[in-house]
Design goal:
Number of helices: 10
CATH topology of the largest domain: Rossmann fold
Number of domains: 2
Shape: globular
Helix content: 25-40%
Strand order of the largest sheet: 1-2-11-10-9-5-6-15
CATH class of the largest domain: Alpha Beta
Radius of gyration: 21 Å
CATH architecture of the largest domain: 3-Layer(aba) Sandwich
Distance between the termini: 42 Å
Strand content: 25-35%
Structural class: alpha/beta
Amino acid sequence: MFDLGGLPRIMYDNKILNYDILNRINLKIEIQKSIDNIKANSLFEMAARRNPKRSFLFVSKILGKHIPVHPRIALLGGAALGAIYAEEICKQKTPYFKEIISAIKEEKNSLEIYNKITHEKFKLKEPTLFIGFAETATALGHSVFNTFSESAYYIHTTRENIIENRSLINFEEEHSHATAHRIYPLNFPVLQSKAPIVLVDDEITTGKTALNIIADIQKKFPRRSYTVLSLLDWRTDEDKEDFKKAEKNLGIEINVLSLISGTIDVKGKALGDVMSDRETDVLNYDDADVNYIYLDKFFKQRVAYPSVKYLKYTGRFGLCTEEDRILDQQIKGAGQYLRKHSEKSRILCVGTGEFMYIPMKIASYMGDNVLFQSTTRSPIYPRNVSRYGVKNALSFKNPENDEIINYLYNIPFEHYDELYLFFEKDVDKEKMKPLIYQLKRLGIRNINIVIC
């Protein structure tokens, strides 16, 4: 088991944080380790979620999921985890580590720091496979992978059931509202090799999800080494003992690295029986301008099945560093095109579900006035109160699968001049209407539906 205890960058604050979540849930956090003394309030706020399996949610301030963030800050979150892996596993000094953390904490100089990382990427000791967890960490995993120059491979899990393909890895995320994860590699032999695997997630509470995927991979394609990278790690001593048992039983090594680690103590219960879901009080703007923009001239590589076409380089089917360089150029072209297309001063770019990384990185080329976030499956109680992570909410049927309800959080009324909503695949315009209606209710006068 890898131990960060001797690192000079870890500050032993033993700081106790108490969160009173909507007067119903009390969460006590003891921060035990913090990389470069990064503060909890730089990384997350708390909210209550509508899920009887787990009543609370760490709402990340740097993921670009539930809270809008400058896209480069989200990309630097992945770079921070990549730097930790490079230093602690690859034993490589990363000269910009403190600058990365400073940019995240202070939300400034992000362009300068991200350009440095882009031009001086980290190196791996050997071919390594990075796996991001759907839905929330698909972009985080990709941004970690993108910080390495050679011999890196990436794939993310998916909640989708691709009936024309067979998932090679299947496991459960037991506490989630959508538990099943699948992996659909396509011409991706690294999964079946002995290469070390790096699992990337935004938060570890018990670590069971990581152990579940490790068990399934080890049963089918055994190897020696796994690392779990996460922004937050809240495992108890008992949870950590489960990792040691897995190491012993499976004959493997599991390293766990994070920006912040500690323990949590929760009192109270899920709010489903005591509180209803209120959405934002807004008006309806029927005169909003709705445009469709197609970026298929930039993204030409496809994975085509009889029922649907996917983009090849999203990470869903696996990609290597050479393919990622191609993707980088495609994204840059698309971002510069949309920057010319846009004339508004306050812009929000929105990814959809698992489709986060490509829209996020496109948004990073669209100007400093651009923020990014994504739709989500996660149902969270919105309340406009201080120290609470979700101020308002919109719910709607997913245009790509109307059996699934999706949500958008933290978009203030009349706050943005223009919104770009990104989809990987073309979407039936009739099925777009409920979502467009909700966006109009936010007072956004210019709505762009971007099909990649």
